[in-house]
Structure formats: C-alpha cells, structure tokens
Amino acid sequence: MKKISVEQTVEMVGKEVNLYGWVDTKRDHKKIVFIDLRDRTGIVQVVGGEDFKSLNTEDVVWIKGLVKTRPEKLINPKIKTGTIEIEAKKVKVLNKTKPLPLPVTGDGHNIDEEVRLKYRYLDIRRPRMYKNLALRSKFIDLIRQHLFKKDFLEIETPILSETTPEGARDFIVPSRLQPGKFYALPQSPQQYKQLLMVGGVEKYFQIARCFRDEDPRADRAYGEFTQLDLEMSFVEREDVMNLVEGMMIEIYEKLNIPIKQKPFPIFTYQEAIKKYGADKFDLRTEEDKKNGIQAFAWVIDFPFFERTPEGGWTFTHNPFSAPKPEFMKDLLGKKNIGNILTTQYDLVCNGYEVGGGSIRNHTLEGLKAVFEIMGLDEAEINLKFGHMIEALGYGAPPHGGMAPGIDRLLTCITGETSIREVIAMPMTSGGRTAIMKAPSVVKDEKLKELGIKLT
Ligand code: ASP
C-alpha cells in the first residue's frame, strides 16, 4: 500500500491508508487511546486500543488504518485534518525514542537558545521551524525561476580564496601544501563576480555563502550568511535597481505577502538622515506590522569615503564601486574626497538593510584611485588587488550588481525576532556551530603538518 502524507488523509475518507510519522501527543482514555500522528505536513488524530498503550510521544511509528469522518461536534477546526480521524488497524513502532531534552511541540520561543541549537535536529521538528525552512526553500526557488527567465547563469565561485574586503575580519584556513600560507574564506564573491563579467558572462547569480568574522550582534548571524549575489554587464544603477525590485515584487506576489509601496520609494542618503536619522528605517505603521506588510525603500547617493580614526580615508560601502559619473573627475584627481558620491544603492525593509550593490569601477584607473585614496601604495595595491587591476585592463565591460541578504529578508517576512530562526543550523551567538563542537582543538600532528605552533 502506498505511503500517504498526513495532510492527504482528508481526501481518503472510507479508505485504508498507510501512514508514517511521530507520535506527537497521546491521550489515554483507558479502553481507547488517542494519538496525534505528526509528519512534515501536519497532525492527524488516530484512535487505537491496547496496542497504543506502550507508545510514547516522539516514537516513530507506522500505522495502517481506516479514514473516518468525525461526528459534527468532534470536528476540530484548528487543524487541517480536523474533519476526520484514523481508526488504527495495525501499528508498528519503527524506533522507540529516549526522553527528549526539549519539547518539540509549541513554538519553542521560551526554550534556552543554546539548548535549541545543541539539539537543532529535534528543534526543527516543531512545525514553526519546518514552515520557516519550507518558506526559505520556496523563496530560493522563486529567485531562481525569476532569474533563469531573464537569462542569468547560476555560477559557483571559490570558497577557499583570498581576502575580499567587505569591512569585516576574514576567516583564514591554513594551507598544508604551502606551509605558513593561508586561504581566506570570502566575505562575498565580489571580485569573482566582477571577473565573470570580464569573462563575458553578462548575467550572473549565485545563492552565495559569505563568511565574516564580526563581533556577534543580536540581529546578525555570526560567521556565515547567505545572499543572492548577482552581477550584470552594460547596466546603469537604475537597471540593477529595477531588476531587483521587479524580482522582489514578483516573488512577494507569488507568496501572497503584501508590500507597502510600489514602486519602492527612493531616498537619498541625505534625505534619509534628515528624515529618519539613519540610513535604514521602518516605514510601517503599527497596523502594517500586524498585517505582515513589508515596507521596502531604496537609499542612494551615499558618500563614497569616510574618515578613518587615523585621519585617512576608507570606503563607506564597497571599494569596487564607481563614483557617480559626475564625480569621476574628482576621484581620478583625488580631490574633493569627502564629497564624492558613490553609485551604491541599499535596499531597506522594515528598518533593516536587506541588501546593497553598486555600479563598479570598470576602468583600472578608477579602481586604482580608490585604493590610493585609501592610502595603499603601488606595491600594496599590486599585492592585494593586482589581479583585479590587471583584469580590468583587458576590456572589462561596464558592470554592476547587488546582493540581497536572504536570511534577513526571510526574517522580515516571517516576523521572527532572530535571524537564526530562518537558518537550519546557525551558529550560537558565541560563535559555536549548532550540534557539532566547532571550533575545536586540533591534534598536535595536524598542526605540525600545517607548520603551525600555538602560543
Ligand atoms: N559585495 C557586496 C556585499 O556583499 C554586494 C554587492 O555590491 O554586490 O555586500
């Protein structure tokens, strides 16, 4: 007999069905015993007798039973299968469970997060977590559908790599073949995606993992996060903004998630600071919040550079950005530095920055000028970014892109308070992996092989 899912049982009244799942709850009424059987699609009430007595919640079971409609007054409108119940004919325990270290019914919000992450494989049994993971999967599917329709290629870029500055510390990985040397995990695929443009790809995207060693913050995922990284050739700022906005609108419509204002309002950095005191702001009313409305806005015209504590200059967003065309002369002449505006555009949603991007410097003179303003000398530029300067010299097309943050967008949609609620196995806020015990101690022989001595 074919296995069917719990939610399909409502269409099988009068038929025998074959169900697999976990015992979600058990109610022992002496002669008859009720259980709620749970699988990923929901719960269904199953009625049994003596053979149900020994079942424990979270045992894994197979049940063969007859689907029956419930009498009118026993209908439970709160669950999808509330109009029916299963009369068990046979039950078999496929695996007994030990007592669980945390409850998996309920939303889990009140359970210590360290415990939830240590036992994440149990924590995701709760329907709320499954729903979040399913939404994430659907969201990524819709991104792919949209971009494939527009002729984008999905391309993977290296993880073991060289540093790409995004304003955080790198995670570094020692090399065994070249002792004393290290790879850096990418803070973003920024340089590789630009090199794909030099390679004539024209339209690239990737569901990209980025690694940033930042001090843990409540509203951030520590260590790694996922962004939709994309890049396009022969585009101007508005082309990229329009593409991303159109994609968001299509995806949110398909998911039935209301957006407050379309087209998305655009603020200059100056306007945003003046009006909201920050470059990220929440346009929702209390009523909007209750109704799950998502309020997007763009912020543009950021200053390119800001002062370092030492009195030099550094980039505010992305060193690979081009200035707005009217400031190119200033950039190349290294004049008027504090007033140069970048082509950077940030997307804001519900008070969070949910993505940013820019048109890039596709000429080597422009990129070199940025690094020179930042105080790098010729030798340093060549050492760190020589490959980019060289590549731009071989007929690099004008290009630009963006990277909306997938974890953050999903946090906004679900209304979850922490970004970790939409990630299957996030790190703890202290920087330990869920379930497994990384970072962990490495044996002496391993270190020796890598030529590393701990101090
Ligand atoms: N590389 C940027 C980031 O990771 C995004 C972009 O400019 O495309 O924030």
From TrEMBL:
Residue numbers binding ATP = 212-214, 353, 405-408
Residue ranges, annotated region (Aspartate): 190-193
Recorded protein name is: Aspartate--tRNA(Asp/Asn) ligase
Entries under InterPro entries matching the protein: Aa-tRNA-synt_II (IPR004364), aa-tRNA-synth_II (IPR006195), aa-tRNA-synth_II/BPL/LPL (IPR045864), Asp-tRNA-ligase_1 (IPR004524), Asp-tRNA-ligase_1_N (IPR047089), Asp/Asn-tRNA-synth_IIb (IPR002312), AspRS_core (IPR047090), GAD-like_sf (IPR004115)
- CDD domains recorded: AspRS_core, EcAspRS_like_N
Gene Ontology molecular function terms on file: aspartate-tRNA ligase activity; aspartate-tRNA(Asn) ligase activity; ATP binding; nucleic acid binding
Record-level GO BP terms: aspartyl-tRNA aminoacylation
Q: What does this protein do?
A: Aspartyl-tRNA synthetase with relaxed tRNA specificity since it is able to aspartylate not only its cognate tRNA(Asp) but also tRNA(Asn). Reaction proceeds in two steps: L-aspartate is first activated by ATP to form Asp-AMP and then transferred to the acceptor end of tRNA(Asp/Asn).
Q: Which organism does this sequence originate in? A: Candidatus Roizmanbacteria bacterium CG07_land_8_20_14_0_80_34_15
